[in-house]
Amino acid sequence: MDKGETDAALVEAVRRGSKRAFDQLVRRHLRTAHAVATAKLDNPADADDVCQEAFIRALERIDDCRNPDAFRAWLMAIVRNTAHNWRDKGRVRAALPLEAAADVAAPEDPSAEAERADLRERLREAMKHLTELQRRVLVLHDMEGWKHAEIADKLGISAGSSRVHLHVARRTMRKRLAAFVAAEGLP
Prior knowledge:
This protein is mainly α. It starts with 6 loop residues before the first helix and ends with a helix. The chain has two domains: 7-89, Orthogonal Bundle (Rna Polymerase Sigma Factor, Chain: A), CATH 1.10.1740.10; 98-184, Arc Repressor Mutant, subunit A. α2 packs across α3 (44-60), α3 (44-60) packs across α4 (71-89) and α3 crosses α8. Helices cover 71% and strands 0% of the residues. The protein has eight helices and no strands.
């Protein structure tokens, strides 16, 4: 990380589409964001989820950051609000890894095999809606069992950025698969 580069310069680079700049912002502010979330929640696991959500919101709303020099304060406000909402609404995000779907026993009859083939096709179709980086992080973490630090080393991103990409990928997959379930009228 270039410590000489200001948050304002990084925010402007993110606005121009730089993933590396966002990764630097994550690296720079993850520890503080996590401390703020933990103080609000008293639970490091929930704080991890809150940080992921806060960084996603910050990325999605980067154009709303009116004073890029005060990015840290803006981000910490997002972290506090996200933690507050998390705590007050009692939301628990059950991000079931894709590998859990593989725990289903192999079907015995041809119709069950056809259903599994259809599910595999739906998974492939849903994955087309992920960015290349999200897809790689999802596959490495959920299907190959890699840790975020290993993914970070492999892909040249931070572990925090890996967590954010995984969270976004899982959310996209859930939406796409839920749409399939609704369209098919499945329970």
